[in-house]
Q: What sequence folds into this?
């Protein structure tokens, strides 16, 4: 990862050039060869997309679709860096508390209406309006736009939101706190514009094909829930001449093995690699099997509250558990998808973040095991006085495998008896949120590409801190980091503290493992959030 | 796979039933003359023996991971005498021979206990309704009608999702719906038996209803109950496998034949076919065993049918 | 007859009410909210969402409002997960799909099962009989979650004859595998029931008399034996049809057909209360209906039954 965000943090005024790469649609953007006529892209969806309303969306597969249908102020390029969207350029003033976006004048909705600053104001007010009841209203709160929290709580009307159209093509946003990564946040669906007349005419049915008016590179043409949907090139899109893929189809296939069979039968251009099959498929289809870093971390939560087994209050026990966990086996023999063994929380590919040296991560596993045995014995547990812990996970094949193997490692190395309990997702969240566990499986994905999206989770005020880990030093370091020009040293310090405390047990950093037909080009492998835009893809001649 | 199999039983002739022991002797003779039923009984005994004894035969425990196999199951985890994994290993390098035995144990237990619950509840309910008749009978049978109209597979999924998985809930949920047919059949039979002379005599002589039901009516229903139970067991096992397929079955590291098959089926195109083949073999043998056994028992207990 | 039907319809009303209250209670008691995710929602956001779906009301008011919506407007409410759609939309889209492949599978299993069963019975103890019994036992015990992936491997990947899934409005190539996967076990059950019932009929006195009178074997079987032998099959039709609806859980999962089975499982896992309710009520109403139809058919065929 290049540290593009850092550039923005230091230089608050950045002018983005319009139309970074103009494709001549008839020839290959890289080789210049003529392109085949078939410019379609078909991919597998795990589940039906819950909604195509940008302000209501909370689903990552839904975001994949929405990125094609709508375009926000800014977009991401193949490296995950900011690229111009509806906004051609923007400035941050008042110590990153006021942001002004200058919109292009040639952006149009798919019905020919111009895209104006007013469309953004309407959409953003809609996102926080209690009547919309958006589950992602918190995202606007996170951005600290003036009055967002009060509007959500019903204390002020949506019209009081700190966002204003200075004219049709200038949008001013005021924040309550300085937020250097605010422009990054506008690439998410919640901040996409929506077409007011469409919503007012059709009500909740406005996202149906035929009704939906969008401003992205594609328009929705067909949608049969739980079967498929397709989106077709939008001729009104301002950069339409650069779009190559004519039609994108998402097919819902629940079972990953079924999806792979259909991929191999030629029905799909992209599908996930089923758990554990990466090496085999890589052997058989080397040009199509890919593993790319993905901004998520897999870890076990340790319950730090009184409801946990008292032994977990002892840092030696927590360390013994973490140290004796052979991450190399979990990653290389169980998951086998090129994941990275983790000894720290922040994903290693996070922009502007270099993984700090975590002492126990540098030892060999034999050394770690030896030390772990010593620590657990010192804490008074062992074969004669076995420790019984409960590990919970949500129903899924790979979580089950990780939990099962981890339990066997602990049993054999430390004599710790693990009771495995799995729950359906919603029940699981409820139980985890109420600290009814000793250890719990968790995965955390970055909301934006910056280390604080991970480390804020371990502060005592974080709602997602289900282990209720609390360390005053971590809290103050994270609070201060928001105003620092260079927060990196604070992040490193936090990582060191949580490793010393063994606040959580990091296990691995995710990769996105998938099959992609070798003639599909332009995939953004370097975008660690795996935010892909169909307009950047093409099918090459080979 | 079939989730709604209703079991049809031709009730043994009641008048023959009350003649006493000779019926059972006849039945036994008829049963042992039927080669298919004897063979299936033997097969079931062998499966039972396997389920109980296999864990002692192997050097592996059902939850221990063979670390030399983990990560390389396709090559190192195949069935082999040298590694001691006679049936190969599952995806995590756990011994499939022992796990299949454990799975068979759980599946048989679910099947037999579920069927027992259904038979006991159904028999009691049906005899009470049939014995007392009149308004009690019609109210009780309306309740059965109502329960029969509940899409219980959906309700079962709902309960397991909502309350988390547990074998007990599985028994309760499956047992709760399976007794309905039994209750209907038993009620019909009870109505007939109730009108027989010796039962009426007992009632006139002031024998308590409970005693009449237990001493005179239920013994005459035993034939049906046995046949019904035998045919219910495989259906219970099929339910359980469906629940396991949905990921709502028993907790790891425990397992069931359904869970093993579901796991094996998901891996079938990746060159580890033994993970499907062994559990499926035991599944099929067990189920067809019970089906043939049930058919054989029905024929044996039904003296009308001399065709075989 | 009319009063019998009326009585059964009257039973349906409390049945469905009980179903509604029971499902509601189950979900009310359930841990976990439909709106909780990996990141817990701030309370004010959660409050807005709950207000929108009426979940902030007391339990009885929720049940009452729900039933009133159904009775007055036939409105099953908005879906919680599929935010752009109402439960009515989803059922209107998914149910015809399930009904189409379910009905076809039903026809296939009844026709093929009866043929198989009669053939086996007529040729009792011949190789044809053993083959039919073997096939039906095999088909009955092979789980359809094993059969479905095998079908796709063979017909889509190896032979390339059929699309691996999808619906496309119910075109024939998309129907074949779902119907096969759904019908085999029911076909097997029907074959087994038909065989044993046919054997019994063939050994009964009136058939023996007919045979003794010298009537041709074929006429005896088709003219005399078939009708009484079908009685047990008819009482099995209702559970078969209901099984087609339930079986859509597996079919939709493997063949991406978009029927209601997949919606139900998703709804249960995601606590989409109104969608769960809608599908449960639909399935309950269908069960009542088919039990009723089966009883009527039984009464029409069997003259001994009086109502």
A:
């Amino acid at each position: 990862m290049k540290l593009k965000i850092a550039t923005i943090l230091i230089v608050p005024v950045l002018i983005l050039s319009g139309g970074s790469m103009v494709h001549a649609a008839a020839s290959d953007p890289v080789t210049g060869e003529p392109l085949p006529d078939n410019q379609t892209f078909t991919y597998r969806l795990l589940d039906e997309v819950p909604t195509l309303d940008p302000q209501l969306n909370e689903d990552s597969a839904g975001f994949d679709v929405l990125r094609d249908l709508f375009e926000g102020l800014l977009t991401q390029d193949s490296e995950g860096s900011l690229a111009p969207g509806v906004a051609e350029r923007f400035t941050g003033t008042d110590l990153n508390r006021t942001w002004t976006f200058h919109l292009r004048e040639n952006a149009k909705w798919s019905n020919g209406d111009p895209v104006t600053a007013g469309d953004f104001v309407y959409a953003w007010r809609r996102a926080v309006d209690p009547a919309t009841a958006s589950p992602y209203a918190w995202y606007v709160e996170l951005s600290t736009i003036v009055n967002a929290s009060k509007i959500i709580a019903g204390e002020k009307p949506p019209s009081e939101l700190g966002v204003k159209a200075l004219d049709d093509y200038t949008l001013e946003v005021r924040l309550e706190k300085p937020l250097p990564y605010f422009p990054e946040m506008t690439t998410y669906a919640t901040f996409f514009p929506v077409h007011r007349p469409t919503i007012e005419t059709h009500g909740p049915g406005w996202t149906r094909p035929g009704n939906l008016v969008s401003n992205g590179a594609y328009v929705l043409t067909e949608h049969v829930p739980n079967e498929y949907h397709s989106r077709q090139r939008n001729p009104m899109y301002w950069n339409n001449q650069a779009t190559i893929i004519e039609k994108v189809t998402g097919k819902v296939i629940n079972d990953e093995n079924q999806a792979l069979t259909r991929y191999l039968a030629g029905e799909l251009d992209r599908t996930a690699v089923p758990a554990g099959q990466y090496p085999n498929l890589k052997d058989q289809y080397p040009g199509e099997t890919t593993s790319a870093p993905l901004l998520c971390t897999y870890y076990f939560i340790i319950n730090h509250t009184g409801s946990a087994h008292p032994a977990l209050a002892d840092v030696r026990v927590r360390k013994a558990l973490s140290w004796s966990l052979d991450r190399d086996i979990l990653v290389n023999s169980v998951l086998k998808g090129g994941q990275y063994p983790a000894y720290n929380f922040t994903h290693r590919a996070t922009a502007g973040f270099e993984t700090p040296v975590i002492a126990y991560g540098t030892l060999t596993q034999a050394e770690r095991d030896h030390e772990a045995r010593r620590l657990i014995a010192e804490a008074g547990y062992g074969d004669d006085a076995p420790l019984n812990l409960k590990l919970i996970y949500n129903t899924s094949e790979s979580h089950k495998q990780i939990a099962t193997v981890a339990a066997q490692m602990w049993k054999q190395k430390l004599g710790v008896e693990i009771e495995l309990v799995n729950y359906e997702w919603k029940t699981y969240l409820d139980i985890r949120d109420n600290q009814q566990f000793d250890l719990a499986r968790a995965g955390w994905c970055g909301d934006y590409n910056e280390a604080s999206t991970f480390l804020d989770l371990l502060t005592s005020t974080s709602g997602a801190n289900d282990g209720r880990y609390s360390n005053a030093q971590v809290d103050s370091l994270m609070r201060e980091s928001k105003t620092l020009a260079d927060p990196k040293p604070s992040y490193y310090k936090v990582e060191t503290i949580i490793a010393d405390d063994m606040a959580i047990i990091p296990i691995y950093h995710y990769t996105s493992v998938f099959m992609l037909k070798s003639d599909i080009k332009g995939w953004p492998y370097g975008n660690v959030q795996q935010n892909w835009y169909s307009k950047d893809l093409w099918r090459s001649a080979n | 796979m079939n989730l709604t199999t209703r079991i049809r039983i031709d009730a043994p002739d009641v008048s023959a039933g009350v003649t006493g022991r000779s019926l059972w002797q006849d039945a036994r003779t008829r049963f042992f003359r039927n080669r298919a039923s004897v063979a299936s009984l033997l097969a079931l005994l062998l499966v039972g023996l396997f389920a109980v004894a296999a864990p002692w035969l192997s050097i592996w425990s059902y939850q221990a991971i063979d670390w030399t196999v983990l990560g390389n199951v396709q090559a190192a985890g195949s069935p082999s005498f040298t590694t001691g994994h006679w049936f190969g290993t599952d995806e995590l390098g756990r011994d499939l021979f022992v796990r299949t035995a454990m799975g068979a144990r759980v599946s048989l237990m679910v099947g037999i206990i579920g069927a027992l619950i259904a038979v006991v509840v159904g028999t009691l309910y049906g005899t009470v309704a049939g014995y007392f008749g009149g308004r009690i009978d019609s109210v009780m049978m309306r309740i059965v009608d109502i329960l029969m109209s509940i899409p219980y597979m959906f309700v079962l999924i709902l309960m397991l999702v909502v309350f988390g998985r547990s074998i007990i809930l599985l028994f309760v949920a499956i047992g709760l719906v399976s007794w309905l047919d039994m209750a209907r059949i038993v009620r019909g039979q009870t109505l007939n038996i109730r009108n027989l002379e010796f039962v009426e005599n007992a009632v006139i002589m002031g024998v308590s209803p409970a005693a009449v039901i237990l001493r005179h009516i239920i013994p005459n229903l035993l034939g049906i109950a046995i046949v019904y139970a035998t045919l219910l067991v495989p259906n219970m096992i099929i339910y359980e496998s469906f629940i396991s397929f949905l990921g709502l079955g028993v907790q790891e590291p425990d397992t069931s034949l359904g869970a093993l098959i579901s796991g094996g089926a998901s891996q079938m195109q990746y060159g580890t076919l033994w993970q499907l083949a062994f559990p499926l073999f035991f599944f099929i043998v067990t189920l067809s065993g019970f089906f043939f056994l049930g058919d054989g028992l029905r024929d044996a207990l039904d003296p009308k049918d001399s065709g075989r | 007859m009319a009063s019998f039907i009326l009585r059964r319809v009257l039973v349906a009303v409390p049945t469905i009410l009980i179903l509604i209250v029971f499902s509601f209670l189950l979900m009310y008691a359930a841990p976990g909210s439909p709106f909780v995710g990996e990141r817990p929602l701030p309370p004010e956001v959660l409050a807005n969402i709950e207000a929108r779906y009426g979940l902030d009301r007391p339990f009885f008011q929720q049940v009452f409002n729900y039933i009133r919506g159904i009775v007055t407007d036939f409105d099953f409410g908005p879906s919680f997960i599929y935010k752009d759609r109402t439960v009515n939309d989803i059922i209107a889209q998914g149910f015809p799909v399930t009904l189409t492949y379910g009905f076809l599978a039903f026809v296939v299993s009844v026709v093929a099962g009866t043929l198989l069963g009669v053939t086996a019975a007529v040729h009792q103890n011949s190789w044809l009989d053993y083959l039919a019994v073997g096939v039906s036992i095999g088909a009955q015990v092979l789980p359809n979650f094993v059969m479905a992936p095998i079908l796709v491997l063979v017909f889509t990947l190896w032979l390339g004859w059929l699309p691996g899934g999808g619906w496309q409005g119910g075109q024939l190539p998309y129907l074949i595998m779902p119907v096969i996967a759904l019908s085999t076990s029911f076909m097997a059950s029907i074959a087994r029931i038909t065989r044993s019932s046919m054997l019994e009929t063939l050994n009964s006195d009136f058939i023996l008399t007919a045979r003794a009178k010298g009537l041709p074997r074929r006429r005896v079987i088709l003219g005399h034996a078939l009708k009484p032998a079908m009685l047990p099959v008819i009482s099995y039709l209702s559970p078969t049809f209901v099984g087609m609806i339930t079986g859509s859980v597996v079919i939709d999962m493997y063949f991406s057909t978009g029927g209601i089975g997949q919606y139900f499982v998703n709804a249960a896992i995601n606590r989409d209360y109104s969608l769960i309710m809608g599908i449960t009520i639909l399935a309950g109403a269908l069960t009542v209906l088919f039990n009723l139809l089966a009883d009527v058919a039984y009464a029409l065929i069997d003259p001994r039954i009086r109502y």
In short: The CA atoms of residues 273 and 292 of chain B lie 28 Å apart.
